[in-house]
Amino acid sequence: MTRKINIAIDGYSSCGKGTLAKALAKELDYIFIDSGSMYRAVTLFFIENKIDFESDVQVQKALQEISLNFVYEAERDRYEIYLNGLNVESEVRDLRVAQKVSHVAKISAVRRKLVEMQQEIGREKGVVMDGRDIGTVVFPNAELKIFMVASDDVRAERRYLEMLNAGKDVSFEEVKQNLKERDLIDSQRSDSPLMMTEDYRILDNTDLTPQEQFHLALNWAKFATEN
Ligand code: CDP
Q: Considering the chain, what is the average pLDDT of its residues?
């Protein structure tokens, strides 16, 4: 029997991390966790409850009131995020959440809470998790770390189409601007910035189909499980 490993997939906004992570998890019979959806769910709670992000007291209190779960939805064959008992998988993808999430993700108290949950999920291995700090902070010992990149235009185009297909009312320019802003904040924040260390394998999927990137990464995963 091959051993179970953890796979960390990090990279800039909308470069296909989720698509790859999902496909790998399915093939390997692992759990796929989209860590970004957790930051998005906390942000949704902060927006709806008008929490002042700058107030430590309000943030601490809000964090105590937040309960997050991933629940398997058989119909769509995936785990979806629940915030205080409600499925918010679709709502957390709204532009209003995307426009605030990087500001919330800068807050150390938020990161501490979510990283702890993520590490607990990965304790038994067999997890593919995507995000910004998975290989650096959450699973520093992950047996496979992938850093994904793609050109700015390709990323904006993909995310725009994804949001249109999900029935969201957005313009291409808004989407592109949001990705740019998040990339900047995520890579410049002081707590757990997005960064590539030398133990990552780089995957540039600008000119790759989902199928091609999947086969490339699957070979890396097989190599990592056998070595
Ligand atoms: O899907 P996309 O790549 O656009 O973003 P996401 O993975 O849903 O993450 C949304 C935001 O959450 C990011 O822009 C980061 O600000 C934050 N995030 C983070 O700080 N750390 C993670 N491990 C995952 C997401």
A: 96
Spatial separation of the C-alpha atoms in residues 13 and 136, rounded to whole Å: 17
Distance 226 CA to ligand 1 centre (A): 30
Q: Residue 1: its pLDDT value, please? A: 54
Homologous superfamily (CATH) of 6-221 is P-loop containing nucleotide triphosphate hydrolases (3.40.50.300)
What's the rounded mean pLDDT across residues 200-226?
A: 95
Q: Is 106 in the pocket of ligand 1 (CB under 6 A)?
A: no
Task: Note the pLDDT tens digit of each residue in 2-13.
Answer: 789 999 999 999
